[in-house]
Amino acid sequence: MLTQGHPSDPPGVLFVDDEVNILRTLARLFRTEPIRLYTASSAQEALEILESESIQVVVSDQNMPRVRGVQLLEQIRQRSPDVIRIMLTGYTEMHIAVQAINKGEIYRLITKPWNDEELRSTVRQALDTFFMRQEILRLDELTKEQNLALQNMNYTLELKVQERTKEVKQKHAELRTAYVNTVRALVAAVDAKDSYTRGHSERVGVYSSRIARELSCKNEFIERIYLAGLLHDIGKIGIPDAIITKPTKLDPEEYELMKRHPEIGAGILESVSFLADIVPCVRHHHEWYDGSDRGYPDRLSGETIPFPSRIILVADTVEAMTSDRPYRKGLPLERVIQEIQKFSGTQFDPMAADAFLAIIEREGEDFIERASKFDIDSFLLETSEVA
Fold it and tell me: Does 1 score more than 80 pLDDT?
């Protein structure tokens, strides 16, 4: 059912946590925000508030007695699917993230201790998304009604239909942006486990999209490979922190554990329906083009490796070589070029390697310095103009 209140009422935000001190802290943090703030110390109390009050956003802790946060958000999704659901937890285990996405269909997952400004910003964005979705429903209904009337109307009225259609497309583009930002937030939680790799996934996604553009791939493919690059290391959420943050090179046993992250990542994503086409790209982004046993997990070769995975491998390698690590400084671009040329046809698909080298020949160091974030808004605008 739609959550509605009086049009003049401030939006309602409900925080759920079994620790009273945390609820008090959250109440102080949001006291200046233009919202109606509610708090609940149990799942039952939260559900009672939802029955009696107009709530647009729920922020719930995970580790609560009797009814866990994931179970509560799942119940809220079933009862009030329009309410935006956010998980606030001190736990980042893989299975919690998967359950929160699959069962609660959460908008964001935020880890404790939180950053005050980021938390406030996330709640504001969640409220914007809620009202945006309501606006899309309103526009869809309005468009349907107008379409019925337009059957007997002239060219002037047809122009109004086009205007409404453009408006609906814009709203859907904004939702796609929100969806990308949600994925970014989840990936940032993984990258944040190691200060040396912070931003790594975003850069790999951007490098991959640039290589795909160089290869004249379609816009749908470019957006898909950006998301695949962004999520390529999501499986590291299941790798022990001691291995992720080790300041020296991994020993053989640790390296074998690290090699499991593509499979773990695929396992996380395969249960999420709207990310189904990303799964094989993530699983195979460490396969070698020549089928060498240095590739993993399935020792695929050549065309049997998904094309996005072959591009991501080049992007991932370039980002890793040009970034500082605890045990070495980032390599100079000349050395990176030599390595890509050396392993083209063995580790790398020659087509993907050549595309990267062509970009570097034109842009040089500017490619590494500027390609740090994917401008999803400009990309969607460009896509709509092409369409």
Answer: no
